[in-house]
Amino acid sequence: MVTVRRLLGVVAASAISVTAATSYTGTTPYAYPITWNPQLASSKLRLNDSIGPVADVFSAGRGFIRSSRAVYAFAANSLDYKISLRGFDEKSDAYYDARNKVHLRAAKRLLRLCEKNRGFYIKAGQSVASMHQVPKEFVSTLSVLQDKASFWSFKDLEVVFLEEFGKDVKELFEAFDEQPIAAASLAQVHRGFLKNGQEVAVKVQYPGLQKQFATDIATMAFLSKALAWIFPDYQFEWLVGEFEKNVVRELDFTQEADNADRTAKSFAHNRNVRIPRIFRELSTKRVLTMEFMEGCKIDDIKSLEKAGVDPKEVASLLAAIFAEMIFCHGFVHGDPHPGNLLVHRDPSRSGKHNFDIVILDHGLYRELGEKFRTNYCRLWRALILLDADEISETGRNLGAGQYARYLPVIFTGRAISSKSSFGQLMTPEEAKVLKEDVRRFTMGDVSEWLQGLDREFLTVLRTDNLVRSIAYRLGATRKTCLMAYVKNAVSGLSLGHPGSPDLYEQGLLAYTKAKFDYANLRIRLGK
Hints:
Elements: H1 2-23, H2 38-42, H3 53-84, H4 93-117, H5 120-129, H6 136-142, H7 158-165, H8 169-172, E1 175-176, E2 182-183, E3 187-193, E4 199-205, H9 209-230, H10 237-250, H11 253-266, E5 273-274, E6 287-291, E7 296-297, H12 301-306, H13 311-329, E8 331-333, E9 341-345, E10 355-359, E11 365-367, H14 370-385, H15 388-397, H16 407-412, H17 428-438, H18 443-452, H19 455-473, H20 478-494, H21 503-506, H22 508-525
Parallel strand pairs: 5-10
Antiparallel strand pairs: 1-3, 2-3, 3-4, 4-6, 7-9, 8-11, 9-10
């Protein structure tokens, strides 16, 4: 059996490697033409990042090995599901117990694959871990990938500066620390000083990602098609396309700079939100130079308390910031995990708002269409009031279809017919009925639901999951998060145009209407 799986892996990996090598056109925003540079020619590049036929052979070989691992993991998981669940009644307790065990084994295989292949596989694993609509075994197992990025030696990154600027690092900066201060799956960050003494953080993309990306995406596309063939109910091919588009955006640091500037402008009215300033003259598609900002990780409760900052106030502000992004700006940060959020204690301020939240890594954003934004605001107003008809209508508008009735559970913890009060969970009886209902779901149902949703909805779901998990870790109650969301949902419906909800941006009429509508809603809720 193992021999067959390995043989299949070798054959499929060969096909993937050839397809990637022959079909990739280099037309994505991060495809760079190779030009002769004497400094580059004499620099100590690693073999796989050098120029010429030898590098092409090395790259193809590396791609073959990575693809072989992926196909092997896929084959092992497919056989595990087929064999381990054979003969069970799909409605029995024994089936669910066996399925959960297979989920866990499959998730561990995927984790090992991501850890070995790194790079885009780490990024893909992180994406799956943030999708709470997939089995919990995958979420809990793959969530460790958030902290799995490892540092590269700076000698391996010097080539990026030479290719982008035609200059050595010492010519560009007054001082530059070769020891990185942070690392992610696609880049790492170094500390430096500009010629004028300004302290900066410099984000440098790892070299050689272009060819690696082509092979990895070809592998993922091949495996998603194979999955649909072996398990017809599992239609997840569209996820590869979404992942590819997101990574293309993240690999273009000029796009990240634009996103940061736009977000800074949108939050100019809020002194508790800080976005690093971008230094355009030292930024390109693969290098991003930005203002260095101090702070502790947002979920580091001990450091927050030591600095005199109330974690619950941090949670409240965090929920409000991202609710404003979603409901009012219509321009949403798609990766707000703890590593991208810092808390800075402001010694000039006292009281409960004595801190700022620093938002980092602006590479992954989603522009929400106006139709989606308005429908999503309406949905949230209906969720709070448990207006079943409005939930069904807006849910259908957002692509949820027949599954719209489950949206109240996903977002508020109450069933659509729940008698629980606002901010409270379902009664034990309601939870029992829902559990029996959900147990009839298959992965095909999950696939159908996710595939039908607007793509904007997927980004919002991911962002909501990440923000709420941090907020709850900081001690926030469910009601705190819900009130932040409904306040901004009501404001979002009153806006004259997408953007900041403050008085100067929207004008007196829209601002006053938002305040009145929110007060009216609180009265209806008895708050």
